[in-house]
């Protein structure tokens, strides 16, 4: 897999405040990489440095294996904050202006408008757009020069549930077209639903990074019930059991690393016991996130 972004020791001080501290990260091609962290954790500052609008105090990073240059940055589209669109111009005209500023051909406008589902409203004035439509137009503008990487900073901020769902679907659609996406968010739910990989930042420090699918790995809990008197003994006999407790009439079995519900099911079956109820529960990202933050 190709490394799109490699960050080493990236640091930013604002006077006495260290906003980003010795950040090391890698983003691979095709990932939807979430930067997750509470407000003030350094996400925007990091993205600003990656886009060349904030000067790092220390450290370095490469895009596509090369130190950042103006030409390289053209391969990266970013929606960092609300871009300046003219309220009395249409979506179409605004994109034409943006294309001119970015020195890219206007041929892509129809395509990006179609992608963000604004073709039907392209001739309406920007000021008549909903917040969700404005955000979609900003994404369309970032895609004008066909970047290979798209950076989104808090893309669903301020949107209603419908707008959030639309941006989420759009992000997935853009990722499916082969682009790498880096998305900063303070919303666990957003990262869990959209991202393939993520990093957690706290007060400028990286405190966790890995695949979203791995969250809660090795910490599966299985809710189980079977019509036998010695079920608790059997569950404790199972080598994958870390602990058990009883809740709502079921046994909750927390499994050791690398053991899964199906292993427990097979163990019970081999003992001649058929479970009447067996449900595997993964630790939610929220629980994991809160644990990660409290550990540090
Ligand atoms: N230009 C600046 N001057 C001084 N301090 C700054 C500046 N920009 C950011 N900071 C501080 O750096 C820290 C990190 O801010 P940053 O905006 O990067 O965090 P964030 O994770 O993106 O949070 P948010 O989602 O609230 O924007 C904060 O304490 C913030 O107050």
Secondary-structure map with pairings?
Blueprint (H helix, E strand, L loop, with lengths): L2 E12 L2 E12 L3 E5 L6 H8 L7 E6 L6 H4 L2 E4 L11 H11 L7 H7 L15 H12 L6 E5 L7 H16 L3 E6 L2 H7 L2 E6 L2 E7 L9 E6 L4 H7 L3 E7 L2 E6 L5 H10 L4 E7 L3 H11 L1
Parallel strand pairs: 3-7, 3-8, 5-6, 6-7
Antiparallel strand pairs: 1-2, 1-4, 8-9, 10-12, 10-13, 11-12
Helix pairs in contact: 5-6
The structure holds adenosine-5'-triphosphate (ATP).
Adenosine-5'-triphosphate binds next to strand 2 and helix 1.
In short, what is this structure?
The chain has 296 residues and is α/β, with parallel strands linked by helices. It has helices at residues 43-50, 70-73, 91-101, 109-115, 131-142, 161-176, 188-194, 231-237, 261-270, 285-295; strands at 3-14, 17-28, 32-36, 58-63, 76-79, 149-153, 180-185, 197-202, 205-211, 221-226, 241-247, 250-255, 275-281.
């Amino acid at each position: 897999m190709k490394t799109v972004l490699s960050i080493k020791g990236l640091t930013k001080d604002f006077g006495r405040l260290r906003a980003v501290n010795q950040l090391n990260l890698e983003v691979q091609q095709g990932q939807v990489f979430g930067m997750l962290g509470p407000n003030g954790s350094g996400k925007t500052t990091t993205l600003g440095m990656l886009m060349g609008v904030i000067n790092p105090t220390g450290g370095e990073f490469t895009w596509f294996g090369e130190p950042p240059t103006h030409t390289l940055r053209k391969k990266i589209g970013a929606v960092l904050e609300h871009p300046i669109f003219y309220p009395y111009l249409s979506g179409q005209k605004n994109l034409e202006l943006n294309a001119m500023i970015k020195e890219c051909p206007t041929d892509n406008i129809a395509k990006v408008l179609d992608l963000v589902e604004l073709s039907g409203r392209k001739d309406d004035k920007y000021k008549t757009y909903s917040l969700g439509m404005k955000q979609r137009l900003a994404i369309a503008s970032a895609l004008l020069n066909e970047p290979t990487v798209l950076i989104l900073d808090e893309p669903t901020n301020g949107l209603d549930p419908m707008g959030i769902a639309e941006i989420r679907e759009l992000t997935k659609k853009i990722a499916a077209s082969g682009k790498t996406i880096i998305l900063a968010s303070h919303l666990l739910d957003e990262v869990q639903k959209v991202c393939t990989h993520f990093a957690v930042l706290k007060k400028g420090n990286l405190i966790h990074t890995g695949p979203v699918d791995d969250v809660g790995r090795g910490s599966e809990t299985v809710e189980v019930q079977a019509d036998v008197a010695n079920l608790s003994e059997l569950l404790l006999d199972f080598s994958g059991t870390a602990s058990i407790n009883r809740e709502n009439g079921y046994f909750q079995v927390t499994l050791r690393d690398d053991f899964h519900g199906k292993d427990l099911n097979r163990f019970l079956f081999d003992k001649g016991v058929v479970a009447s109820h067996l449900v595997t529960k993964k630790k939610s990202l929220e629980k994991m996130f809160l644990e990660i933050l409290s550990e540090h």
